[in-house]
Predict the 3D structure of the following.
Amino acid sequence: MRAALQQAQEAASEGEIPIGAVVVCNDRIIGVGHNMTERLDDPTAHAEMIALTSACNAIGGKYLNDCTLYVTVEPCPMCAAALNWAQLGRLVYGAADPKRGYSLYEPSLLHPRTQVTALCTASCSTQPDARPDLWPASQPEAASSLATDSSRAASLADECSRLVSDFFAARR
Ligand SMILES: [Zn+2]
C-alpha cells in the first residue's frame, strides 16, 4: 500500500486526482499506475486500469488469479468490472468511496473468487461527512482480519483519503 500511496503522490504532483495502484504477484510489484485522466484526456485512465494493463504486459497474460491489487481508494464500477475480467485474486483498498465506489452495486461487480480487504470504511472515506446509514449492507472483510494490525491499516487508509481531500480542498 505504501507503493500505491507513492503512485498517488505522483498523480497529485501532476495535477491528477491522487489515486495510485500497484499489482503484486509472488511478493514482487509487477504493475504500477496512477490516475492519468487529465494527461491522457481519457476518462478511463484510472490508476487500477493502468496498473492492470502493465501487470498483464509483465506476465504476458490477461489473468491475475494469483495477484493482489493495492489501490488507495475503493475502485469505481468500471475498474471493478475490469478486475473481474482479469479474475484478480485479491483486492486491497485504502479509503472507501461511498459516492462512486463499486460496493454500491449488488451483486458485486468483482469476480466471485476475488478476496476483498478494505483497510478502512466509513471513518476514513473520501466523503468524511457521508452518513454511515448510506453504506451498503454487505461490508467487505474488515481491516482487523488483515495480517497487519488494524490501527496501522486505518492510518494508511487515512493517508489515502487525506491525499484526495487535500487535493480537492486546494482546488476550491
Ligand atoms: Zn476506476
